[in-house]
Amino acid sequence: MRVQTSRFGVVEIEAADVLNFPGGIPAFEHLHKFFLHPIPENPAFTWLQAVADPDVAFLLVDPFLFFPGYEVEIPEGLQRELEIKEAADVLALSVVTVPDGDVRRMTANLVAPVVINRKARLGRQFIMEGTRYTTRHPLFR
What we know:
This protein is mainly beta.
């Protein structure tokens, strides 16, 4: 399958690479199909690219690499929704913001992780309730 993107040009993906976000992503509820587009030179980061809109892509980071004590508690309802049966099938990533394009000021949203069941190819961004985390944790000090 060929997907047009504004950042990477035309990307060739397999149908099995498509992730279904049944409820979309907050502020992009109309988009349900995405795929991960890794950054080979920096595997800590990946892009979550919308299939249907070439301009919509989110930079994601593995938060556990930058914040070793980070914890994501996935509510039972979300586990059922994403058909999570094994912890090994779960991928939890954080959306990155790059203020004014300055990578030295990058922040990660630790309040609302993007949770993906790699096996079922289902995902959702959800807001953790009552957490000590913020939406703007600096990646670099």
